[in-house]
Amino acid sequence: MKPYVILISSASGIGKSTIASEVANTLGIKYLIETDFIRAIVRGIIGSEYAPALHKSSYNAYTTLRDTYNFKSEEELITAGYEEHASFVIPAIEKVISRCVLDNDSIVIEGVHLVPGLINIKQFEDLANIHFFVLTVDEKQHQERFIQRALAIKRGGTQIDYFKENRIINDALVSQAKTLNIPVIFNNNKDTTVKKVLQYINEVSRIVFVRHTVDDIDLEREIITKHGGRITDISYYIPEFKEPLTRIVENYEDNTSSGKFINVIEHETKQKESLGTLYELSNNIHSHHLYAPDENKLNDIIQELKENNLLYDENLVKK
């Protein structure tokens, strides 16, 4: 059995350490490490004169950048400093993962240095069960937790002044995670968040091909979500195109978010017509990466799609 590598990232003050500890305990994973500890080791090897951003914090590393005039906004500058800071830590994080995978040991790693797109998790996909999560909360809750954490670790005077920078880091992490289809979880409640993380870890998936018109989108969603399923993308197969046209689907299992999309289709005539044209060009055929809590629920979804004449070809269902 392949080991688990579970990565949990967020800006400071979101609550990732608590969630990581709960997940590790629940799954019986003995190795749990904060990227701050890895950073401390790297700092001992690389001096501040060679890597000034490394020797700052993630939220003020931007003050070490030389080419500040190249950035169009404060957000870009702060994000660039943060990524520069993290880039010195990420190779060491990857070495830790490599060692765990080599020894067939599972590990949970949490920290702000886990930046989607910068850390190369694809290199481990064949050797381990890799799961990457980004946690977030709304701005008000973030600020409250951020202040509480800063005071608790007795660095309030240093950190409290940098909430704005930390919020920008939060927004950058969330944006990049969504771009790369990495789950973003709102950490409003510890138990709910842990449950959601475990659901993602334990779920199974298939690629399914469906065929239906725009009018059946809500029926498809109802079938999938009532069994606890979700989709993460839609690929349209247009005959004139060599590659399918794919778009990422966010928060599909969230009835509020997906319901808004359905509402737009039902009430915005132009958007419905545009989507209908896309469906017609692809002969109403498209595919999804379909996820469900377990094999039984996944099979139930596929069977019900078939019964409602939405499944295009059962033989095309694949892992």
Automatic annotation (TrEMBL):
<keyword id="KW-0808">Transferase</keyword>
<dbReference type="GO" id="GO:0036094">
    <property type="term" value="F:small molecule binding"/>
</dbReference>
<dbReference type="InterPro" id="IPR004173">
    <property type="entry name" value="3H_domain"/>
</dbReference>
<keyword id="KW-0418">Kinase</keyword>
<feature type="domain" description="3H">
    <location>
        <begin position="208"/>
        <end position="311"/>
    </location>
</feature>
<dbReference type="InterPro" id="IPR035922">
    <property type="entry name" value="3H_dom_sf"/>
</dbReference>
<dbReference type="GO" id="GO:0016301">
    <property type="term" value="F:kinase activity"/>
</dbReference>
<protein>
    <submittedName>
        <fullName>2-phosphoglycerate kinase-like/predicted small molecule-binding domain fusion</fullName>
        <ecNumber>2.7.2.-</ecNumber>
    </submittedName>
</protein>
<dbReference type="Pfam" id="PF02829">
    <property type="entry name" value="3H"/>
</dbReference>
<dbReference type="InterPro" id="IPR027417">
    <property type="entry name" value="P-loop_NTPase"/>
</dbReference>
